[in-house]
Amino acid sequence: MSESIHKVAIVSFTDQGVAIAQKLQKEFYRSNVFTTRDTVFFGEVTHVEKIGEVIETSFQQYNVWIFVGALGICVRSIAPFIKNKNTDPAVINVDDQGKFVQAVLSGHVGKANEITKQISRILTATPVISTSSDLQELWALDLLGSTYGWQMRSSVPLNTIISLFVNRKKTALILKVKNKGTEFLEKTLPNFVDVYYTEQGWDMHAYKLVIYVGYQVLQTGIPTISYYPPCLAMGTGCAKDIEPSLFIEGIKQALKEHGIAIESLYAFGSASIKEKEQAYLDFSAHYGIPFVTFSGEELNTIEVPNPSEVVKKKVGVYGVSEASAALISGQESWIVEKTKAVTVSGKKFTYALSLSNRYERRSAIAIVGAGSGDPELLTIKGQYLLEQADCILYAGSLVPEALTHMAKEGALVRNSAAMTLEEQIAIIDQYYSQGKLIVRLHSGDPSIYGAIQEQMTIFDEKGYDYYIVPGISSFQAAAAYLKSEFTIPEVAQTIILTRGEGNTPMPEHEKIADMAKLRATMCIFLSAGIAKKVQAQLLEYYPDNTPLAVLYRVSWEDEAVWTGTLGELTAIIKENKLTRTVLIVVGEAIGARKNRSWLYDEKWHHIFRKKEKKIVK
């Protein structure tokens, strides 16, 4: 939290309060401490005779005020300067024994509630928060927009909306688009909220409140709060020297006719010959919407649904508005195809609208790292995707089957160990064409020997939407098991992740013997079957007594680990008949405990830990 706070003022009135203030100052490094006490203290502390004078001159200059003392003093001190909950700074009060932390002012917009929880963790104190939505762990509707960059529009006063919501009235949530914000809403859905993905198919008479996230203007007849992400791209063409005010009014009217909120526009564009068209420049300035232009060559890369021979003859392209919208949005589809309009002066213009590909609700493939084996080492995002997926393909030879128990009822779960790549793609094709969520579950972290490159090549060719969710690699689980830091000051500052040369050749410049010259911490995968060869290559540069660990299925229920020296590597592999899922780690960092980092040395000062100045007053 402290990273996002620009200025913090901490006020204390007692000696105990000064001690707490100085503790908080170390956490909120962009902070100043003010006190009325005559005492000995350290750090950036300012002694003042009257706190009221500081508040009068500086109340709006700080994002956060933290009072350490009686709540009454805090309230009386700030009362004359409170103006508006949307502009007032956050105010928090801590008693001078550090037992209770209370949000006093600007709980939501100023983030006082959030900071209160943070301070309570620092002091192991009890947080006191009185905001109903926070107490019920409900969405803060007044903050959703600013949190995710959405503009907000409410059909009734916002307080009425919030009252209905915190009193848990039956609510319809309509999600027309998809991004991190809508994913958050889906994951944290209260039990009195029903979610829909279209404006149709729900009975408005069954609800007291509607929450909408999309680009359309909803007319429901019941209290509605709408959030408009910047998700629509507009392309436009116009007659030369079209009147700016008439063009702006024409676009406003056009959007109104289509039921589209102008708040959802994030950019608009046209042909490069229009880059100085005053109507476009004025529209951009009036609404703060970026204006971009494209060359004829760029516009002609788009196959528009409504080509015009007339435009082709005049401008050299078959369409300006549709092509511009497609280029801005990143996809060749339109929620409004080219539409012609005429201003009251008789000048013509066209427009088209496309939904940004970043907001489209469509099928997706998540390549998820399953972690090293222990289901509890799966990332939270990975767990969420497994719970939501319609299809899960997992590498059963390397991923515990228990992870797939998170799948929802009705989901397809298949072990890909015996499948060819083509068989896997056939299943993915089937579910992708249905707009489903597909999870491809790989062991460890997908970027390390995950065999995902060949899949992504096919996804790219097919134009599929996919993304990668990292996982905990077995080398990280190995470090945890060995209670080792693989980068030790003045011992080893490099980790090498590699494998030995078996049936699959190694690149000429990546031979193990060459990498061994560095004497770094080396983690060697997929090499149990060629352990003797690997050992010989390592011994060219590592001493025979270099610490060694051999880990079999580390973090699985049947994990086994052997430690020794590099000279014992072949014997460990042979005596324990190890073949697959073995990781070999070699290096002086294994089990090292001697060297100390400068990071936390008292003589080492930096932006987070400034050199303390002793001040006597």
Automatic annotation (TrEMBL):
Residue ranges crossing the lipid bilayer per the database entry: none
Molecular function, one GO term: precorrin-4 C11-methyltransferase activity
Sequence ranges assigned to domain Cobalamin synthesis G N-terminal in this UniProt record: 54-134
GO terms under biological process: methylation
Keywords, ordered alphabetically: Methyltransferase, S-adenosyl-L-methionine, Transferase
Domain Tetrapyrrole methylase: 365-569
InterPro entries: 4pyrrol_Mease, 4pyrrol_Methylase_sf, 4pyrrole_Mease_sub1, 4pyrrole_Mease_sub2, CbiG_hydrolase, CbiG_mid, CbiG_N, Cbl_synth_CobM/CibF
Cobalamin biosynthesis central region domain location: 139-229
The EC number(s) this enzyme carries: 2.1.1.133
Domain of life: Bacteria
Keyword Methyltransferase: yes
Domain CobE/GbiG C-terminal: 232-352
Keyword S-adenosyl-L-methionine tagged: yes
Pfam family, one: CbiG_C
NCBIfam families named among the record's database cross-references: cobM_cbiF
The family this protein is said to belong to: Belongs to the precorrin methyltransferase family.
Identification of the protein by name: Precorrin-4 C(11)-methyltransferase
Origin species: Aquimarina hainanensis
Lineage: Bacteria, Pseudomonadati, Bacteroidota, Flavobacteriia, Flavobacteriales
Gene: cobM
